[in-house]
Amino acid sequence: MPLFHPVDEKDITRAIAGSFLRQLGEYAESDVVIVGGGPSGLMAGRELSGGDLKVLIVERNNYPGGGFWIGGYFMNKLTLRSPAQEVLDELGVPYEKYTDGLYVADAPHACSKLIASACDAGVKFMSLTQLEDIVLREGKVGGVVVNWSPIAHLPREIAALDPVPLEAKLVIDATGHDASVARKLSERGIIEIAGEGAMWVNASEDAVVERTGEVYPGLIVCGMAVASVYGLPRMGPTFGAMLLSGRRAGELALELLQKAPLI
Ligand code: 48F
Q1: What are the backbone dihedrals phi and psi of residue 116, each rounded to the nearest 5 degrees, phi first?
Q2: Virtual CA dihedral for 233, 238, 131, 157, nearest 10 degrees?
Q3: With pLDDT > 90 as the criterion, what percentage of the chain qualifies?
Q4: Residue with CA nearest ligand 1 atom 5
Q5: pLDDT one-digit tens code per residue, 97-116
Q6: Which of 83, 74, 80 is nearest to 95 (CA)?
Q7: Which of 60, 131, 134, 209 to mutate to test ligand 1, by most ligand atoms within 8 A of the CB atom?
Q8: Closest residue (by CA) to atom 21 of ligand 1?
Q9: What are the residues whose beta carbons fall under 8 Å from the beta carbon of 210, sequence distance 6 or more?
Q10: Which of 133, 147, 175 maximizes ligand 1 atoms within 8 Å of its Cβ, making it the mutation to test the pocket?
Q11: Is the whole-model pTM more than 0.85?
Q12: How far apart are CA 155 and CA 160, in angstroms?
């Protein structure tokens, strides 16, 4: 008697494809599309939890987590400054106090719990999917245009593949240093991107959280994308502002969604 229930191979393929296509059809029109599944994007998604909101994270890597997996250098340790360790408390991630106001945690533990909490909140993911452009109509960002990420690394002669649009009431740019979504507006002369400043942790983290917000109707920036858009200093390998900026972006998205039908 085999341990596992017998199934046909074709049914495994159909189960994957059917589930994926159902989700893609449903999320072709989302409430919020978050581009980038690093710490700020995951926090934003987690914040949008509960209710009936459709929240999709588009991530060009084949895994979410961004810079949160590794922390600083290759050392698998994260630092956070007070009060951001409270997020680790919420996630149930252990940490040590290094000195007053500075805490250190194991990056894989923190990252996996943050991803799990976004999944628990109902966030869906499209991995290996890269932002190629935005939907822009009547002075408002109305979604994203995405493609399969490996396409960007293939010669155009063998990979002329048109992207697909995904509509959203709100888009959150959580793409980190690249500020890839905001950049699509700057390429068209609609906003300016100042480029991030040199490292200055004490100035950077507060400023990133404070400036998190709508950079253009329908587009919220969070995480390091905020520093890139506004020319704020970078903070290096410490993640408190990423978590609190993501949280602020999620809260703001909720407020905006409650205010008005945005499409
Ligand atoms: O880089 P990332 O972790 O951004 P973040 O949430 O946090 C920044 C910190 O990790 C660290 C720091 C401060 O502590 O300086 O760098 O702001 O995560 C960004 C995610 O976005 C994805 C990228 O693969 C990463 O997982 N991403 C970037 N550009 C695109 C994208 C794109 N064009 N399309 C889809 N995903």
Answers
A1: -60, -40
A2: 90
A3: 90
A4: 176
A5: 999 999 999 999 999 999 99
A6: 80
A7: 60
A8: 36
A9: none
A10: 175
A11: yes
A12: 8
